[in-house]
Specification:
The protein has 90 residues and is mostly helical. Helices cover 73% and strands 0% of the residues.
Amino acid sequence: MSTPVSANPVMVEPKKTPLIYKILVIMSVITLIGGTLTGIMTYVNVGVTEHFYADWFTSFISAVLVMAPISFVMMTLIHTLVNKLLLRAY
């Protein structure tokens, strides 16, 4: 036997993700990907020398200073686009 179930017709507002969570995710991705790629590229270009870590850190800081602003802009644009597409679907 099945019991009839009635759904509440009131739309439920989705919870908004706090901005700090978004920033932490982007910063961790930047650190992981940027650190790995700059480490590999530094190793290929100069090899393991006594100045490897200084060279890698310089490359990493340069990459972060470029990637962070681009990531925040892309995050905002993609968030806006996904919201528009999902709201249109419903």
